[in-house]
DNA sequence: AAAATTTGACCGGG
DNA sequence: CCCGGTCAAATTTT
């Protein structure tokens, strides 16, 4: 009954494949757990059930800790050697959960040299971020914030996923990518010429799973996009992909700013310190040493108050400390990660003396 | 008619 | 020179 396929090579890749899927799945779980934690933190304090609130937090924290531990174990046990460009589909959940964010990756200075593998975008991660050393003063100056969502659309269902982030895009190009089965579509914010919003995104259909889209965003919206989602209660039936080899066709839906905030908060939660120059390019800055003021923000736990540093260079430095994280004592992710903070050109919006005020939703004003 | 997409040219980094 | 990202004219969609 049990097949003992222990062919050295063949099953090896399969093993790696499974391994990658595992990592991806874990990462996804962790992210979702983080979201839940976030949501909980936003929940207004219920005096009547303060105990339950505490319990909930504890529970979520345990879940998160489990994920973190599993991930760290996984990564310590085996580091994903980029030997083959095998692309693993990130998740196999199907319980009616369609059109969901599967995974998000953030890389600033990602280089894709024309070498062995660069064909498959989204160099697999699933662990890297925790151990990124940011402590080095780091003056990388040139990288435009870039993060990738992997989105899966369900057949026959209206795609409500982040394929539509609530923003309106205009396609300005399409390119065949070497080694990719499907062309890559280039989109930019419709209000580029109106408000100078430099946000762009590119959509790439996955090579093997045509239900998976890799959406890479570059730059953050500076425009005041209308979220106006409540136009009609009955969302028009959107055809998902009319023809093959067509990357994506985002309809229109809701929650623009919500999503934005959500993402921003997620970014925050991962711990970061960011600098934005007037150029629009981002700039790493030294981690905030004032971890002493680990005040509870947004009603509860994690991130310490933000630190806004404005240089005389008309550059705006927004630095954030890492998370305080009360996770299991085993794996303290107290390391401060470096994440790009994608603001567009804030030059128009702020002066070098503008004071940023972060509200509960993580945004500024 | 106006707005959005298509598609080859163009351009810059590696 | 190759590859990927963008421009812009032509063309299609609304």
TrEMBL record:
<keyword id="KW-0805">Transcription regulation</keyword>
<feature type="compositionally biased region" description="Low complexity">
    <location>
        <begin position="224"/>
        <end position="243"/>
    </location>
</feature>
<keyword id="KW-0539">Nucleus</keyword>
<feature type="region of interest" description="Disordered">
    <location>
        <begin position="220"/>
        <end position="259"/>
    </location>
</feature>
<dbReference type="GO" id="GO:0005634">
    <property type="term" value="C:nucleus"/>
</dbReference>
<keyword id="KW-0804">Transcription</keyword>
<dbReference type="GO" id="GO:0009751">
    <property type="term" value="P:response to salicylic acid"/>
</dbReference>
<feature type="domain" description="WRKY">
    <location>
        <begin position="158"/>
        <end position="221"/>
    </location>
</feature>
<dbReference type="InterPro" id="IPR044810">
    <property type="entry name" value="WRKY_plant"/>
</dbReference>
<dbReference type="GO" id="GO:0010150">
    <property type="term" value="P:leaf senescence"/>
</dbReference>
<dbReference type="GO" id="GO:0000976">
    <property type="term" value="F:transcription cis-regulatory region binding"/>
</dbReference>
<dbReference type="GO" id="GO:0003700">
    <property type="term" value="F:DNA-binding transcription factor activity"/>
</dbReference>
<keyword id="KW-0238">DNA-binding</keyword>
<comment type="similarity">
    <text>Belongs to the WRKY group III family.</text>
</comment>
<feature type="compositionally biased region" description="Low complexity">
    <location>
        <begin position="108"/>
        <end position="123"/>
    </location>
</feature>
<dbReference type="GO" id="GO:0010193">
    <property type="term" value="P:response to ozone"/>
</dbReference>
<feature type="compositionally biased region" description="Basic and acidic residues">
    <location>
        <begin position="84"/>
        <end position="96"/>
    </location>
</feature>
<dbReference type="InterPro" id="IPR036576">
    <property type="entry name" value="WRKY_dom_sf"/>
</dbReference>
<feature type="region of interest" description="Disordered">
    <location>
        <begin position="76"/>
        <end position="155"/>
    </location>
</feature>
<protein>
    <recommendedName>
        <fullName>WRKY domain-containing protein</fullName>
    </recommendedName>
</protein>
<dbReference type="GO" id="GO:0042542">
    <property type="term" value="P:response to hydrogen peroxide"/>
</dbReference>
<dbReference type="Pfam" id="PF03106">
    <property type="entry name" value="WRKY"/>
</dbReference>
<dbReference type="InterPro" id="IPR003657">
    <property type="entry name" value="WRKY_dom"/>
</dbReference>
């Amino acid at each position: 009954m049990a097949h003992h396929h222990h062919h050295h090579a063949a099953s090896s890749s399969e093993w790696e494949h499974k391994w990658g899927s595992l990592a991806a799945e874990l990462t996804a779980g962790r992210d979702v757990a983080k979201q839940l934690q976030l949501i909980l933190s936003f929940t207004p304090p219920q005096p009547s059930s303060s105990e339950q609130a505490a319990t909930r937090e504890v529970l979520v924290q345990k879940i998160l800790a489990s994920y973190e531990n599993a991930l760290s174990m996984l990564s310590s046990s085996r580091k994903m050697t980029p030997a083959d460009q095998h692309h693993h589909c990130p998740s196999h959940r199907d319980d009616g959960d369609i059109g969901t964010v599967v995974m998000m990756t953030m890389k600033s200075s990602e280089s894709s040299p024309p070498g062995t593998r660069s064909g498959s975008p989204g160099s697999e991660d699933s662990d890297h971020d925790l151990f990124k050393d940011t402590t080095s003063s780091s003056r990388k100056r040139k990288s435009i914030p870039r993060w990738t969502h992997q989105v899966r659309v369900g057949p026959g269902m209206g795609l409500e996923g982040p394929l539509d982030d609530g923003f309106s895009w205009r396609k300005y190009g399409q390119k065949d990518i070497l080694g990719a089965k499907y062309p890559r579509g280039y989109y930019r914010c419709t209000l580029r010429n109106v408000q100078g919003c430099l946000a762009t995104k590119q959509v790439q259909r996955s090579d093997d799973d045509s239900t998976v889209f890799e959406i890479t965003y570059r730059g953050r919206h500076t425009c005041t996009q209308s979220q106006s989602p409540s136009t009609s209660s009955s969302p028009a039936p959107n055809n998902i992909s009319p023809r093959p080899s067509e990357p994506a066709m985002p309809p229109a839906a809701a929650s623009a700013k919500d999503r934005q905030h959500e993402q921003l908060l997620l970014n925050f939660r991962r711990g970061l310190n960011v600098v934005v120059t007037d150029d629009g390019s981002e700039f790493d800055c030294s981690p905030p040493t004032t971890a002493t003021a680990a005040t509870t923000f947004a009603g509860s736990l994690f991130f310490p108050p933000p630190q806004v540093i404005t240089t005389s260079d008309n550059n705006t430095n927004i630095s954030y400390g890492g998370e305080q994280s009360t996770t299991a004592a085993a794996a303290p992710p107290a390391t401060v990660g470096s994440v790009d903070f994608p603001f567009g050109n804030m030059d128009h919006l702020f002066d070098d003396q503008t004071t940023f005020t972060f509200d509960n939703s993580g945004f500024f004003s």
